[in-house]
Here is the input.
Amino acid sequence: MTRTPLLLTVFHVLFAVFMLAPLVTVVLVAFTDKGYISLPFDGASWRWFRAILDNPDFVAAFERSLGLAACAATLAAVLAVPAGMAIAWHRFPGREALLGLLLSPLMVPPVVLGIALLRFLTQIGGSGTMTGLVAAHTVVVMPYVLRLVVAAATGFDRSVAHAAESLGASPLTVFRRIELPLILPGVAGGWMIAFITSFDELTLTVFVASPSTQTLPVKMYAYIANTIDPLLASISTVLLVLTLALMVVLERLYGLDRVLGGKT
Here is the structure.
């Protein structure tokens, strides 16, 4: 068994500490008993977690972000699955151009994309509406789903589907019983990343959202511009716990190596 060099181990430890230190700091600040950001503090308290429930604007923004992220991720998956299967399994004129077009939101700065979507949605009367917000987020998160679907579909053994077709299975049955279940880890991984990305999206949402459709990141951004207290640290801690819970569920269902790697 090959041992990891000491210098490499030290580097990995320092890198992990560097990445985790801000998160640990935020979690610790969330338990302060002071009315301001303080670390270290005299005693731990649930004060700022109870303050979340006492602020209906944050609760409403959280529910809105949750619904928005779920809708955007689901729509992105519905669009990315057929597109990814076609790109991975077929060769046709314009295939590379289509793939580049669908992945292009990853290469456009969020500010530019936000202004462009604001202009487009204003022209069609969708600016400031939840429908327009869902459409904008779907455009942004679809590339994440598509990449994992293409990766999963590329590693799919097509002979299994051909065997089912030769035995009389219809295309819909082959897709529902064979193809979709085998690429499902990639779809689930893409959906998870799309959900988290949509939930956390700030820059684009600032342009597209209205005061009545503010998401949680926009609400937090507006709050911190005027007030500095541990309330945002407690909200961030709750979001961190929910993200970890989602990761644990996916690990139990599929395994994170399959989900995030898009493996079949």
